[in-house]
Amino acid sequence: MTGNLITVDKNTYESLQQELRELRQQVGRNNLPYSPEQIGVFIEYTPAAIAIFDEQMRYLLVSRRWREDYGLGNQDIIGCSHYEVFPEISQAWRDIHQRCLAGNLEKCDEDAFVRANGKIDWVKWEIRPWYTDSGAVGGIIMFTEVITARKQAEIALANSEKRFRDIATNVPGAIFQFTNRDGVWTVDYISDFIWELAGITASEMMQDLNCFFARVHPDDFDRCIASVVEVLENSAPWHYEGRLIKPNGEIIWWQGDSTPIRNEQGEVIFCGVLLDTTARKQVETKLQQLNEQLEVIVEERTAALRQTEARWQRLADNVPGMLSEFRMDLDGTMSFPFVSSGCREIYGLEPEQIQADTASALSCIHPEDLPGMQTGIAESAQKLTNFEYEWRLTDIFGQEKWVKGIARPERLSTGEIFWYGCTVNISEQQAALRELKQAEQQLQEQAQFLQSIWEAVDYGIYVLDVLNNGEEFRFVKFNPAILRLSPIPLEAFVGKVIAEALPTEMADIYRHHYRQCVQSGKSIFFEESFCVDDQENWWLLNVTPLVDSTSCIYQLIVTVTDITERKQAEKDRQMFAALIENSSDFIGFATLEGQPLFLNQAGLQLTGLDKLDTGKDASIMDFFATEDQEYLQQHIIPTVMMRGVWQGEYRFRNFQSQEAIPIDFNLFMVKSPDTGEPLCLATITRDITTRKQAEIKLQQQTQDLEQTLHELQRTQAHLIHSEKMSSLGNMVAGVAHEINNPVNFIHGNIIPASEYARDLLRLVELYQLHFPYPPEEIQTEIANIDLDFLKDDLIKLLQSMRVGTQRIREIVLSLRNFSRLDESEFKQVDIHEGIDSTLMILQNRLKAKSNHAEILVIKEYAQLPLVECYPGQLNQVFMNLLSNAIDALEESFVGEQGQIRICTEVVNHHRIAIRIVDNGGGIPKKILAKLFDPFFTTKDVGKGTGLGLSISYQIVVDKHKGDLSCNSILGQGAEFIIEIPIHQ
Predict the structure, then answer these.
(1) Share above pLDDT 90 across residues of the chain, in percent, rounded to a whole number
(2) CA 446 to mean position of chain CA atoms
C-alpha cells in the first residue's frame, strides 16, 4: 500500500480533508443530497481511502485509493465480506466493526497495521455508521490514511538527534549555537566539552554567556570582541584564536570557527566548534624558539644570510574535522549513514558521495596504512573500545594528507555496530615533526647555498667592520667577483683599516660615504670613476648596514656593479638627442594610443606650431587633414601595429595656413631591446614639396609622350594589319577560286561515273548467270582481281569520293566567305555564317592530337537578325578569339575535355552579343588590364605578335561602335564578349 502513495500539496490536502469532513457529516445526518450513482462516482475517484460496507461487512463501494493502499488491484470485491478479503484481521478490529454497527463512532490518529507479508504500516482511521431511510444502521463507512512515511520521518528525526548527541559527546571540542537577537546574545546549545575547555558547565554557559567571556584572557578580550563585531558587520566566516584562564588558573589556547547565517527574522545564528589548541601552540612555540636560534646562528656566520633567511611558516591553526557515523553490518558491510561537510576538506568528496559509495572514501587510504586501520576497526568492534588511529590518504585532487580518527563504538540489539566520532587533518603536526628533524640539515644546506651565491654572483661584494661607531672601518672579506673587477689586488686589504689600505685622499672619500650610511642607518648609493689603460671606468656602489641584536650597526655590506656601459649609453643618448633636435627632418614620438610625446624644432616649423601640445586630448591625427585621417586610422596605423613600419608618401597639414604639405612619411614602432614589447610610435618625415612639384611637371611630360607613342603604335599596328589582311584576303580568294573549278568538275562527274560502274557490274553479273563456266583464263583473272571484293568496294570508293569533293566545296565556300577582308562597305550579313566559316577553317586544330583530346565546340545560337557590319573584319575578330581559345585549351583545361562555347543573343532590341567561352586555365588578373594593348603578348617569341586582340578591339570598338571585353578567373577559364549594334 505504501508503495503507491501519492504526494499532494498542502492546499489540495486541506481541500480534500474539508470534503471528507462534509461527507462524514452528511453520512452522520443520513442526509446525502446525491444519488447512489453520484456517491459511487465520488468515492471511486476521490484520492482518499474510503470503503462502504453493509451490516454483514460486505463491500458496497470502495475508492481507488483503498484498492491501491491495500493492494487489491482490480480484484472484484463488491459483495464480498471484508473478512474474506482480509482473513488475517484481528479480533480487536472485528470488535471495533461491531461497535460501529451498533451506532458508535470509532477513530484513531495512529495505529499499527500488520500486513500479510509481515510489513507494518501506520494508519490514521475513522469508522462511522450509515443509516437507512427508516433510521436503522445500514452498515459502516471506513476512512483511512496511511501515515507510514510521517511516522518513519519522526523515528528518523529521533535517531538523528541521538546520533548528533553521540557525535557531539565524542568530538574533541565544544559544539555550539549562539544567536544574536537585536544585539542580545543567547546560547541555544553548547556541548559538554566546554567543561574541559573552559572549566564551566554547559548549563552555566547556556544561562549566561558572560561566564565564558569572564574566562577570556584580559589581553585577548578586546580582540575577541572585535572579531565577532567584524563578522556581524561583514557577514564573513568567524575564526578566532586566543587564550582562556580556567578557574584553577590554568591558561589554555583555544580556537573558534563558525559560519554565521541570518534567518528571516534578521537574527544572526553562529553554529560552530570551540577547540583546545594548547598542544599545537606548544609545538609552534618550540618551532619559534628553534627558528630564533637558527636566525642567531645564521647572523653570526654571515651577513648575507641575514638578507635571504627563510621564515618558517606557521602551522595551520584552523583544521576543521569531519564528523561521521560509521556502520558495520553483521556480514561485514561498511557504510556511512551520516557524514558532515568537513569531508570536502579531508577527502575532497561531497557527503552524498561518501554516503552513497563508502568505497570512494576507503579507496583514498594509503595502501600501507589500510591493514592497520582494518585491524583497529576489528579490535574496536570486538572489544567495544574507542577507535583511535592515524593514517595517510590521498584526496581526489591527488594531495596526500595525514589524518587522525577518533570514534566510540556502540552495538545495537540487532548486532550492527555504529561508531560515532570525527576525523581531523593532522598533516601540519606531522610536517612540524619532520621539520624539527630536518632543521639541522636545512641550516647546513642554507649555509652552503649562501656560500655558493657569494662565490657565483657576477657583481662584487665586500664586507667592512664598523669600528668606534663609524670612526674607522676594517676590510673583512672580498668575494671572487670583486677580486676580478678591481684594477688593483685586494687580497692584502683583509684585516686592514681604510687608512692602512688606501691613499689618504681616497680613504677620506670612501670613509665619508661609509659614515653617511652609518649615520642614516639606511642603504646609500654612490658612483665612482677611475681610469685603467687610458679608458674611463665607472662603478656603482651600494652600502647596506647590518644591525646586531642591540640595534647597533656592526658591519657594512658593499656591492659593486660595473656601470661603464650604462654611462657610455647615457653619453650616446645625449648625442642622439642633440642629433634629433638639430635635424632638418620632421622627427617625433607618440604613445601607442597616438598621444604626441616629442617633436623636434624642424617638425614645429614644418607644421606651423610654436610648441607641441602633449595634453591627454592631443592626437597625431591633428597633424593630418580631415579627408586623410580615415586612411591613416584604418590602414597606416594597423600596418605599423602588425608589421612594425609603414613608409610611403602622404600629407601633413599646416596648422596656420591649413595647406597640405606633401611628405615622405616613415612611421615605425619603437620596441624594447630586452623584451621586444612595443614602447611607442616614432616618425622621421621629410618635406617633399619641391620634389613633388618637379614630379608633377615630369609626369605631365611623360603622359604626353606616352599618348604620342600610343597613337604611333596604333597607327603602325593598323597599317601592318591592313596590309597583312589585304594580302591574306587576296590569297584566300585566289586559292578558293582555283580550287573551286576542278572540284566542281570532279564532283559533277562522280554521279554519272557511279551510274556507269553500276551498269558494268550488272552486265558482269548477267555474264556470270548465263555463262557460269567461262574459260580457264577468265576464271584465273577473276581470282586474281578478287571480283567479288571489287564489286563491293568500287561503289563505296565512288561514294567516298563524292563525300570528299562535297567537303572540299564546303571549305572553298568558307574560304570565300572569310575572304571578305577587302570589302569596305557595311553589309547586312548573317553573323552565324561568319562564325561557322571561321570554325570550318579552324576544324583541323579542333581535332584530337597526340598531346590532347578533341576540343568540343558547343553552339548556343539565338535567333539573330541580319547585322550591318564589315563582314571580313568581323570574321578576323572571330578568327583571333577562337585561335586564342584553342591555344589556351592546348596548354590546359578544366574538366574532362576542352570546350569552347559560342553563345549569341539580342541585347536591348538594338544590339547583339557574341560570347566565346573556354574552360582553359584562365587569365591572371594583372594581365587583364593589358590584354588589348598593341604588341602585348604572353606567348613565346615567334608564336605571337601581340596585335591580334589589339586589332580585334579596334575593329569592334572603333569600326563598329561596339564593345569588346574579357571576364576571367585564374583556373576557371575565360569569356570574351563582343557587342555591336544591329544597325550602324
Answers:
(1) 11
(2) 44
The pLDDT of residue 740: 66
Q: For residue range 706-760, what is the model confidence (pLDDT) as tens digits?
A: 777 776 666 665 655 555 555 555 566 566 656 766 767 677 777 787 787 888 8
Q: What would the grid cell of residue 510 be?
A: 670612501
Please give the pLDDT value at position 318: 43
Give the whole-angstrom CA distance, residue 600 versus residue 609: 11
pTM of this prediction exceeds 0.85: no
In this prediction, residue 305 carries a pLDDT of: 44
Least confident interval from 526-535, 624-633, 881-890, 898-907: 526-535
Mean pLDDT of the region 74-79:
87
Does pLDDT of 139 surpass 90?
Answer: yes
Question: Quick check: helix, strand or coil at residue 667?
Answer: strand
CB 120 within 8 A of CB 105: no
Residue 803 has pLDDT above 80, yes or no: no
Q: Which letter, b or e, does each residue of 19-54 get, where b requires 16 or more Cβ atoms within 10 Å of its Cβ?
A: ebeebeeebeeeeeeeeeeebbeebeebebbbbbbb
Q: Euclidean distance between the first and final Cα of the chain, in Å?
A: 105
Q: Are 473 and 511 a contacting pair, CB within 8 Å?
A: yes
Pairing state of beta strands 899-907 and 856-860? parallel
* 322 in Cβ contact with 422 (< 8 Å): yes
Distance CA 439, CA 420 (A): 39
Q: How many whole angstroms separate alpha carbon 893 and alpha carbon 940?
A: 19
Element (H, E) at 59: strand 59-62
**C-alpha cell read off for 980:** 555591336
CA distance 346 to 424: 8
Highest mean pLDDT among 49-53, 156-160, 574-578, 689-693 belongs to 49-53
Contact in structure between 661 and 651 (CB atoms under 8 Å): yes
Amino acid letter, residue 286: K
| Side chain identity, residue 436 | L
E strands within 691-757? none
CA distance 216 to 208: 14
DSSP string, 481-537: HHHHH-SS--GGGTT-BHHHHS-HHHHHHHHHHHHHHHHHTS-EEEEEEEEETTEEE
Cα distance between residue 612 and residue 604, in whole Å: 7
Q: What is the pLDDT at residue 731?
A: 62
Q: How far is CA 779 from the centre of its chain?
A: 100
d(Cα 888, Cα 970) in Å, to the nearest integer? 12
Q: Residue length, the chain?
A: 984
The Cα–Cα gap between 517 and 497 comes to: 17
Give the E-state strand segments of 810-937 in sequence order: 827-829, 856-860, 867-869, 899-907, 911-918
* pLDDT tens profile 930-973: 887 776 676 654 455 567 788 888 889 888 899 999 998 888 89
3-state secondary structure 819-831: CHHHCCCCEEECH
Q: Provide the grid cell at 240.
A: 578566532
Give me the amino acid identity at 592.
Answer: L
C-alpha–C-alpha distance, residues 948 and 724, integer Å: 12
| Long-range interactions of 934-943: CB distance < 8 A, separation 24+ | 934/710, 934/713, 934/714, 934/716, 934/717, 935/713, 935/717, 939/887
Which grid cell is 441? 640539515
Radius of gyration for the chain, computed over Cα atoms and rounded to the nearest angstrom: 58
Longest dimension (CA), the chain: 165
d(CA 279, CA 298): 29
The whole-angstrom separation of Cα 60 and Cα 77 is: 9
Question: 590 pairs with which residues across the strands?
Answer: 596, 681
DSSP-assigned beta bridge partners for residue 408: 420
* Short-list 850, 818, 849, 851, CA closest to 833: 818
Dihedral angle, C-alpha 196, 199, 203, 204, nearest 10 °: -160
Nearest to 382 by CA among 409, 343, 355: 409
Q: At what angle do helices 787-818 and 871-891 cross, to 10 degrees?
A: 120
